[in-house]
Each structure stands twice: as C-alpha cells, then as structure tokens.
Amino acid sequence: MTAVHDHVAAARALAARLPQLIDESRRTAISLRSGLHGNRKVGPGSDFWQFRPYIPGDPTNQIDWRRSARSDHTFIRQTEWQASHNYWIWPILSPSMYWTSDSSVPSKAERTLIISIALADLLIRNGETVGTFDGERTRITSAEHLEKLAHAMLASPQSVAEQGASIHPGRKQSVLLLGDFLEFSDLADKASNAIRQLGQYQNDGALVQILDPAEIAPPFRGRVDLFDTDDQMIFRSEKFEDIGDGFKQRAQKWRASVRDAARQNDWLYDRHVTSESASPTLLALYQHLSERQNQSGSNGRGRPTLHRHNQREMS
C-alpha cells in the first residue's frame, strides 16, 4: 500500500516514467484503432468522401456529371469535413491519485495518464485538436507532440473545486475530466457547481471517475487508520468489518453525487477501476465523443447514448 503523504515522490517517479507511459498509451490506442471507424462528417474540404443521390434543392455545382453519366440517376459529390474540433482533456492528479491499495495495482494517477494520452492519440489521428489546462493552455494537432501534451497534463491544476472556476473553455468545445474526485466526498454541491461551470458555454463533455478497487469494496479487516494528504489521521476503527457496510454506503453516495454532477451538464459519466483493463473505458469515451459529433456536427452538442455503470452505481 502506498501512503498518500508520499505523493510528491510518487509524482516525480510518474514524471520519470512518462516515456514508458506514452508507449503504453500508444499501444492501447493502436489496439482499438483498427476496429474503429473515423469520425467522418460531410462538410467543406478538399478530400472526396462519397457520392449520394441528388435531392431537389441541392446546389447544382455539387453534381458530379461524370458519375451521373454512368447511371440513370444524378449524384452529388460530397467532401469530408476538415475543420477540427477542440477537445480539452484534464487529468486531475490530486495527491490522493497516487495512492494504491496494492503494489500489483497501478496508481490512479498512472492509469489516468494512460487513458488521457491514449484518447488524445485517437482524437488527433482523427484530425482533431487536443489540449489541456496547464498554464500555457497547451494544444496539439499532431501525434508527434504527444510527449509535449503529456508533460503539460502533469502541470494541470490538481483541484476542480479550487481551480475549476478560473478555467474557461471556448464555446461549444469538449471537456473531459478524469480523476478520483475525492475532494467532493463531503462537498457535493461544490462539485456540482464547479463541473456545471465547465459546461456553461454549451460545452459537451465526459467525466471519468478513476478508483482503486479498495474504494469500491474495502478489503480491510481489524484495526484501520485512515490519513489525509497531510499525514493527519482522520479516522480510526478497531474492527473495520463492523462498519464496512456503512463505509460502502457512504462511498456509494459520494460516487453518485459526482455522477449526478456530470449528468447535470448532459455529460457522459463513466467509472473505471484500476484493477481492470483501460481499453473498455477508452473505447466508451471515444465512441461517445464520435457519436456526439456525428449527431450534431462539428462544434455542436447531441444527446449522449452511453451511460455505463448506471445500474451498478444504484445497487
């Protein structure tokens, strides 16, 4: 078990391992990429996409006369939309993100970075622009610059409640938050207000809650002492199994408050446990973003179709 008060050393170790994490993120993205279709949309551009039958009212200058001459029908030549959409990925690497209940399980910070970088890779290769909320508001449009984006992610703010109000994404852009959101365990209203503000300019988005398996089903027995990030003991139990059910209920209520805050923005909520593969979460995120853009076009909002774990959260 990694102590929370060692988060500074853990953060430095994570930064030193960034090249390996980027490689793992790329492998994860590559494993999904072959089975995914690009987020292609009709629109202004120079690359041919497809033919479709002419409909009365279509501009005549879009008719492909050569293709139409080979058929009894008139066809329109459609090109592919080439205007990129802006995606802001914010991995919230608070001190609690460096805690792990078992050395065989990756830390929440490590898994958050892997998912964030892999998602950025998928989006960039689909022609989109990806940025993060470090001091420079770093944005990239080429997969060759993933390492630059990863370093910027390490410098992103560590608290939504304290620093979210000062972040103002552009109108009708997409915002993705990834973290454990433990800062909202006793501040449900503050969580809702901070997250709602990030979506106030018709910004589409998603929130992924990254959790250690012990935060879902605590395996503790006997005497248990819990400490905060300042190494101050905040809870002691001489026999944890006697209060285990109450602990689970409180944790479930906290997770539900984060989920509901995301839904108030009409955002996707997903939950990821670090003992599981990153691929399902990454696939759900990418498919959600692709579907929203296909439903509403570039720089628009549609209706979400993926809400994984909803039933499990209510049980």
Give the overall form: elongated
What helical percentage do the residues reach?
Answer: 25-40%
The arrangement of helices and strands along the chain is HHEHEEHEEHHEHEEEHEHH
Structural class by sheet pairing and helices: alpha/beta
Q: Give the uncertain stretches in residue-range form.
A: 42-46, 297-315
Please, how many helices? 10
Classify the beta-strand content into a percent band: 15-25%
Strand order of the largest sheet: 5-4-3-6-7-10
Tell me about this structure.
This protein has 315 residues and is of the alpha/beta class. It is built from ten helices and ten strands. Strand 6, helix 7 and strand 7 (204-211) form a beta-alpha-beta unit. Helix 4 (108-125) packs antiparallel against helix 5 (146-154) and helix 7 runs parallel beside helix 8.
How does the SSE layout of this entry go?
Layout: H1 7-16, H2 18-33, E1 48-53, H3 65-69, E2 75-79, E3 86-91, H4 108-125, E4 129-131, E5 139-140, H5 146-154, H6 160-163, E6 174-179, H7 188-198, E7 204-211, E8 224-227, E9 233-237, H8 244-264, E10 268-273, H9 279-296, H10 310-314
Parallel strand pairs: 3-4, 3-6, 6-7, 7-10
Antiparallel strand pairs: 1-2, 4-5, 8-9
